[in-house]
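ugh ok fine here u go
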Amino acid sequence: MQRGEPPRHNSSRRLRDALAGEGYVLLLGPMSIVELLSLRGKYEPLEVYRRALEGRAEGVELLRQALENGSVRKIVYLGVDGALPRLLGQDHIIDLYGSLPRLRCPRCGRKWWLEEGTVCPNCGIKGERDSWETPRSRLLSEAVYELTTAEIVAVHGLGEPPIALGAVLAISVSRFTRVMFLEPVPRQLQGLGLEEPGKKLLEMLQELVSG
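structure:
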């Protein structure tokens, strides 16, 4: 290797290097939960939520273990199905667009899940959907911080990514964050220095959990 050339790493080396740092930040889209639940085809968000509550799925359990052992530090989620915060808790998940099956009381601010009823346990008034079309500024700021300060960002399930996302990932790369796509890099994001390690989401989680 000549002076000035970047080091060459294979995908397994990249995973081991990440484990020595402060953990992955996962940027997941609506299709990610479909894969984690081992579903096939397309599902509406509320159907995904119902399927998620039916029983344990290997992918979700692997993600839970990766959060517990610190190999994944945060998940930025672009879906609105609510499955991940419902199953894994809200502490490690930034759901940018909220969750359709989560309700919020317009009077006291209490939040609860749809299967618990449609009226606030405190106030007795009908709850509102805790989801929105445009990310709240606080959540957006938190997501940008996580994506631009992580050692490694792993991306999966976005489909057609928002234009602004390309700018955020470009900042990440400029700050020496490795951005790995666990699927082909979208055409509009090519040329940013994003990596394709050739691994699937479940395969990566299995390696992170097993060490």
